[in-house]
Design brief:
binds iron/sulfur cluster, 379 residues, 10-stranded mixed beta sheet, 20% strand, alpha/beta, 2 domains, globular, binds S-adenosyl-L-homocysteine, TIM Barrel
Length: 379
């Protein structure tokens, strides 16, 4: 007798997969629509509340299925309204989700992996090593948890969370299928109905996956560039040695040009690090490098963390860099630090990650956080 019947977690199922699930248990396809609405529009986590399903079906569902989001470990609200959730995923590690309210919009920043294998030198997630991929349910579960907590009513869907960015922990293109399923649910009217322009995938440049991405979705793309030449990018983003700029930039441009809406552009993320990539000659090189790339540039002042010797650039250097790009016609913004009182700013987020690669043993040994919970990580 097996007591460990694996229930299907309906939270991460796309419309197609939900329909296939209902057919597989001998039910009609249209049940998928009803259940998707209960889960994502009403954020219901219990079949008993699904009142337009008959009692027998509700009972059957509770035998074979479940709606299981990651466990919420903590929720904090900053003075500026930024919210941060720490959630535990299947592996036992914790990842974080941040909601950033702004005038006229609300951006949810979510994680795709616990840890990251790519080891960018300025990123504390990278220093933690890789633990695990999040399931589709764990990726979309972060939206579900945030929407639930922000107390959206069905009629207001999308008003609180207007944008989702895959800029939390992990490299989303290395968890391709689960991330694509979750993004499809974000955009589906039966899910969260967020426009494709307002769902953004950020990548450090996994070129083969970028090429595949264009065949399955049309979300917005952000590229973590951080350097204007290969020599410097090799140091900051080691993945560059595998996919250097001369293959990476055409792959990004190809993705954008493949979209039906020709007015779209790539967001270039450039983390400015004092004395490393923040000099006028770097801006001049960047201006040349991006000449044929339809893009806008987002400058992110480096947020320091323990065990990194890098420093934040001065405000002068930051604004000089921005001006230089703007004078050459680039739409260039500086990412404002938000939620730093709850450690929710880029580079401040905490995860609790077991490094299965053991790459960062030195880093882990040196962690001295009092509650054994926090290792600074980046978004
Ligand atoms: N792996 C993906 C998405 C997660 S990282 C990627 O690399 O794009 C998202 C962003 O967090 C990166 O663009 C990077 O600029 C930023 N980031 C990482 N560490 C940071 C730090 N210490 N200070 C400021 N921004 C940081
Ligand atoms: Fe991974 Fe992105 Fe951090 Fe690089 S910047 S280590 S790709 S999470």
């Amino acid at each position: 007798m097996s007591e460990t019947l694996q229930k299907t977690n309906l939270l991460g199922l796309t419309r197609e997969k939900m329909e296939a699930f209902f057919l597989s248990i001998g039910e009609k396809k249209f049940r998928a629509e009803q259940v998707l609405k209960w889960i994502h529009h009403n954020r219901v986590g219990d079949f008993e509340q699904m009142t337009n399903l008959g009692k027998a079906l509700r009972e059957k569902l509770s035998q074979v299925a479940e709606i299981r989001a990651p466990e919420i470990v903590s929720e904090n609200i900053s003075k500026d309204g930024t919210r941060k959730w720490v959630v535990r995923v299947t592996s036992g590690s914790c990842v974080e989700t941040v909601f950033i309210p702004e005038e006229g919009r609300g951006t949810l920043c979510i994680s795709s992996q616990a840890g990251c294998a790519l080891d960018c030198s300025f990123c504390s997630t990278g220093k933690q090593g890789f633990d695990s991929d999040l399931s589709a349910a764990e990726v979309i579960g972060q939206v579900w948890i945030a929407a639930r907590s922000l107390n959206n009513q069905p009629a207001k869907i999308g008003r609180s969370i207007t944008n989702v960015v895959m800029m939390g922990m992990g490299e989303p293109l290395l968890n391709f299928d689960n991330v694509v399923d979750a993004m499809n649910l974000m955009m589906d009217d039966l899910g969260y109905g967020i426009s494709k322009r307002r769902v953004t995938l950020s990548t450090s440049g996994v070129v083969p996956a970028l090429q595949k991405l264009g065949q399955v979705t049309d979300v917005s793309l952000a590229l973590s560039l951080h350097a204007p030449n290969n020599a410097l990018r090799d140091q900051l983003v080691p993945l560059n040695k595998k996919y250097p700029l001369e293959v990476l930039l055409p792959a990004c441009t190809g993705y954008i040009q493949g979209l039906s809406d020709k007015s779209r552009s790539i967001t270039i993320e450039y983390t400015l690090i004092h004395g490393v990539n923040d000099q006028p000659q770097h801006a001049a090189e960047l201006i040349e490098l991006l000449r044929d790339v339809p893009c806008k540039i987002n400058l992110i002042p480096f947020n320091p963390f323990s065990l990194s010797d890098y420093k934040r650039p001065s405000n002068n250097a930051l604004h000089r860099f921005q001006r230089q790009l703007q004078e050459s016609g680039y739409n260039t913004t500086i990412r404002r630090t938000r939620g730093d009182d709850i450690e929710a700013a880029c580079g401040q987020l905490a995860g609790e990650v077991q490094d299965r690669t053991r790459r960062s043993a030195r880093y882990q040994q040196k962690r001295v956080e009092p509650d054994n919970q926090i290792a600074v990580r980046s978004i």
